[in-house]
Design brief:
Layout lengths: L1 E68 L7 E13 L16 E13 L1
Parallel strand pairs: 1-3, 2-3
């Protein structure tokens, strides 16, 4: 799915791969189970809420806010990077930061300019 503006919402679904990109606005995946999830927003916000993946989940913004919140796959590796801005990770997910686990899910929350948040 790709949109030039406004909002893309992917909710309550099981799928192999989910790719959603919004140029200006908001892209969100809520209550999703998949092998791979990729959410990208150029200007605005990208939000993954209760997303469980087998392989990877990437939440990426160029200018705005990238958010991963709620439940994630147990034993997952978590990567949170904000190049020019702020990165925040709640206490409950700090143990997953930087963990290198073979065969486990990988969650990446990236932001170039703005904020990367894990709640």
């Amino acid at each position: 799915m790709e949109a030039e503006s406004n909002q893309v919402l992917v909710a309550d679904i099981k799928a192999d791969k989910i790719y959603a990109e919004v140029h200006n606005g908001r892209v969100e995946a809520r209550n999703v189970q998949a092998n791979d999830v990729f959410l990208k927003c150029l200007n605005g916000s990208a939000v993954a809420h209760n997303v469980k993946v087998v392989v990877s989940c990437t939440v990426d913004t160029l200018n705005g806010t990238s958010v991963l919140e709620g439940e994630i796959t147990k034993g997952a590796c978590l990567e949170v990077v904000c190049e020019n801005g702020m990165a925040e990770v709640c206490d409950k997910h700090k143990a997953d930061l930087g963990r290198k686990t073979n065969g486990c899910a990988h969650y990446a929350v990236h932001c170039l300019n703005g904020k990367a948040v894990v709640k």
